Amino acid sequence: MDRSFIDQLGREVIIDHPPERIISTVPSQTELLFYLGLNDRVVGITKFCIHPKEKFKSTPKIGGTKKLDLKKIEAINPGLIIANKEENEQEQIKALAAKYPVWISDIKKLEDSLEMITTVGDMTGKVEEAQSLAGEIKTKFSNISQLRQPLKAAYFIWQNPYMVAGNDTFVNDILNKCGLINVFDGAGRYPEVNKEMIEKEEPQLLLLSSEPFPFKEKNKIEFEKIFPSSNVMLVDGEMFSWYGSRLVPATEYLNRFITEINDRSLNFEY
C-alpha cells in the first residue's frame, strides 16, 4: 500500500509501505535501521557505515557517502533510500530521487534527530521501537550532567587547514547541551580557522575529534605546544555527531566527558 511521508526538506516521498528493500547512505542512520530490527530489509550501505560491525561485514556496499555507486544502487532496485542533506552529494541524491523514493534528513539539533528517528520508524513499520528509542534519548539528554560553569570551546574536525564545527550544526547543539560555548558559533557551519583566529577567541578548551580527521595523541601534543593557554582533549566524534541510536551511549559518554572537565576545573581560567 502506498503511503506518503514528508522528509526534513519538506519533500513528499511516496513509498510502498512498509518498504522491503532499504538503502542507507549515512552511517548514523544505517546504525538506526539495524537497531530498529530491520536486518533483512537493509540491502545496501556505504563503506563508512561501520556500525554494527557484524552487519557492516555482511551487507552490500554502495560506495561512499560523497561518492555513491549509482550502478550498484540501480542493480539493487531499492524501495526506499534514506539520505542526508549534509552528508550526501546533492546531484547524486537528485539523480536517485528521479528513480526511487528518497527520504532526506536535515539534522541540526537534537530535536531534528528525534523527529528523524520517529519518522523512519513510521516509514519502516517500526513505530513502537522508534518512539521508545526517541523517548529514551530525550529523557537521557534532559538528565545530562552539567558543567560547574560554562566554558569557551572550539571543536576541531580537520587539520591542515584547521576546520571547526560552527553554528547551525548538530555538533554545536551537543556542545551547547554540555554547557560549552562554541567560540566559532556565528562563523559559518564548518569554517576554516587559523592560529590567530583561535587565539583571538581565547577558548579554554580545544576538542580534537576522531572524525572526519582522525586526531591522535601526537596531534594533541602539537596543539598543546601551539596553544599553551588552552586545555586540549581528544574526543570521540561519533558521540558528538552521530544522530541515530548512538545517541543512547552518547549520553553516557558525555556524562563522563563533563565529569572529567569538572574534575579538571582548577586548571581552567574562568
Description:
- With 270 residues, the chain is an alpha/beta fold.
- It has 2 domains: 2-140, Nitrogenase molybdenum iron protein domain (Rossmann fold); 151-267, Nitrogenase molybdenum iron protein domain (Rossmann fold, 3-Layer(aba) Sandwich), CATH 3.40.50.
- It is 40% helix and 19% strand.
- The strands form 3 sheets. Strands 7, 8, 9, 10, 11 and 12 form a 6-stranded mixed sheet that branches. A 4-stranded parallel sheet has the order 4-3-5-6, with helices on both faces. It has a two-stranded antiparallel ribbon with strand order 1-2.
- Strand 7 and strand 8 (162-164) form a beta hairpin.
- It is globular and about 60 Å long.
- The termini are far apart.
- The mean pLDDT is 96.
What is the highest CATH level, the class of the largest domain?
Alpha Beta
Main pleated-sheet profile = 6 strands, mixed
* Domain tally: 2
Helix content: 40-55%
* Computed CA radius of gyration, to the nearest angstrom: 20 Å
Brief description of this entry?
This protein is α/β, with parallel strands linked by helices. It is 40% helix and 19% strand. Helix 5 runs antiparallel to helix 6 (127-142).
